[in-house]
Amino acid sequence: MSQILTSDPAPDFDDPINLLKACHQRILGFCDLLKKIVAHAAQDDISSEVHQAAQKVHRYFSTAGQYHTEDEEQDLFPLLIDSSPETAPIIDELREQHIAIHTTWVQLAPVLSRPTLINETPEFETWVNTFCEAYHEHIQIEETELFAVAEQILGAEQLRQLGENMKARREKCQIELLPSLNS
C-alpha cells in the first residue's frame, strides 16, 4: 500500500492529543489490514505476504497499541477526571471497552503470531470482526466525546506532562529491550 504524503508534519509528544488521534488512524488502518487477512483466509490464501501482514498486525497491537491504551488509562483518563469529574461516566465506559478489546486481543494474538493457525482457527473471523468493531466504536467515542473536552480543559502544563509520560513509556520499553538484544 502506498502512503499519502502530506505537507503537515506528524504530531509528536509536544501535541499529545493529536498524537493519540494519529494513533487512532493507525489502529483503524491495522483493523483494515486484519479484514484483508480474513478475506485472504476465506480463499485459503495464506501466502507469505499474508504471514507478514499478520505478524505486522501482531507486532503493532502488542507494542504501540498497548502503549496507546496505557497512555489513556495511566495518564489521560486520570487527568480528565481530576480536571473534569463529569467525564467519569464516559471514561468508565472507555475503560470497559479497553477490557473487552484486550480480551479479544488475547484470543487473536497467538493466531497472528503464528499465521499458519489462521485457517485452523474457525473463530478467527469472528474475533477480527469483534476486535475491529469494538475499536471503531471506542475511537468514535474518544474522538467525539473525550478529546474535545481534553483540548478545552487541559492546560499547557498538563498537556506537556501527558506528552512527556507518553514519550517516557516508549523510551522505557526500548531500554528494557536492549539487554535482551545483547544476550
Which keywords apply here?
183 residues; mainly alpha; Four Helix Bundle (Hemerythrin (Met), subunit A); disordered N terminus; disordered C terminus
- List the domain count as a whole number: 1
Category from helices, strands and their pairing: mainly alpha
Q: CA-to-CA gap between the ends?
A: 35 Å
Alpha-carbon Rg, integer: 18 Å
Strand content: under 5%
Verbal overview:
The N terminus and C terminus are likely disordered. By secondary structure, the chain is mainly alpha-helical. 79% of the residues lie in helices and 0% in strands. The two termini are 35 Å apart.
Quick recap:
79% of the residues lie in helices and 0% in strands. The protein is an all-alpha fold and 183 residues long.
Question: How is this fold's topology laid out?
Answer:
Layout: H1 16-42, H2 48-62, H3 64-83, H4 88-113, H5 124-153, H6 156-181
Helix pairs in contact: 1-2, 1-5, 2-4, 3-4, 3-6, 4-5
